[in-house]
Amino acid sequence: AGIAHQGIQMERIYPQATLPELRRLLFGEKSLAEWEKTPDAAVQELTARFARRAVRRPVSESQLTPYTTMARAVLAEGEPLVEALRTSYRAILCSPRFLTFVESPGPLDDHAIASRLSYAVWTSMPDKKLTQLASQGQLRDPSVLNAEIERLLSDPRAQRFIDSYTNQWLKLKQIDFTAPDRRLFPTFDTCLQESMLQESRAYFAELLRGDLPVSHLVDSDFALLNGRLARHYGVEAKLKPGDGLQKVALSPSDRSVRGGFVGQGAILKVTADGTSTSPVVRGVFINERVLGRHIPPPPPGVPAIEPDIRGAVSIRDQLEKHRSSESCASCHQTIDPPGFALENFDAVGVWRKNYGEKGKGVPINSEGITPEGEAFTNLAEWKALHTKKTDELAHGFARQFLTYATGAAPRFSDEEHLAAIVKKAAAQRHGLRSLIHACLTSDLFLHK
To answer: Which of 247, 219, 254, 252 is nearest to 233 (CA)?
Structure first.
């Protein structure tokens, strides 16, 4: 049972492997019956094999000895080989070397690079080929490293990265944190919400697959929709029934609203509270997650802004009190513009022209001025301004991705490296796949 359970766990790591292949990963070419004929040798060899895979690097004899000693003690008590192996395997799986990355300050060795790379792109341990290259000391060769990055990104297991990264970067894992008021949004349900999640993930996968420019974070001439999403968004699209999400060319009017991440339902829902919207919440999200601008926390003692869900008073009017305060004005100058641009979207991502229930409240004013002094009157104009700022968008994406891939946000002293990443990707129009390649081959990723 213990070996079967281990096989189940390994099947998650090797989803395309058959049961005989999984057994070979555990026992090599010999069967369990053959190993049982020489239990002492089996404990030594199989524990070493398991330890090397678990800690993702070679294991010295002194590091292995405590685990083999425990297994041999179980054998001495008359227990079968399987029970002895379970004892040593359990101990290995409790080891800090399994549970954490062992990385010394400075340049990472090849095995540490293999682990970082595999967990960044597959959210799992290195496979056989990556481990072999690490053992041969080849992963610091730029051509080999780039080839491995491309191989990992092209593998079906990269879908794990797409799901995990969008959960963190775009906060998609928080989509269940609020439930829209059914009286205000009677057409919203879990099926629509799941379609929204699939849309954002499929869109990111499309940007990655085609190495599309980073400006697509803000605007695009296509969307990935199914029938439910098209009806919810009010987009006219010729879709094949039963084919799920499909790539749809957006008309100029639809593009002005739905192009890019900023018009997607999942993003608009995680930045709302289920009943109302706030340009502050959405403004902070877009600044930090898309534009790459850090927003400091508010000064102590500043009250939150509660929207008037009746729509009798514009939240923009309420914000004027904050903007007129010297301690708040500097931040709101950066926060508010993208928030104002997105105010035409309600809490579930439907376009509206007025606040309040059934659009009977005050008209929505989506005008604003960027921190650079550029005026816009609506979302389309705001997007047009920011699609030109590809260096800024690439810098912001690189910061987000490196935070995810290394577990630590880049510091001020890392700005030179970030600039080099942006410059390197510029040769490929700041394509998202090119940006990821540049990040994974940078010193910020290859050093601790």
So the answer is: 254
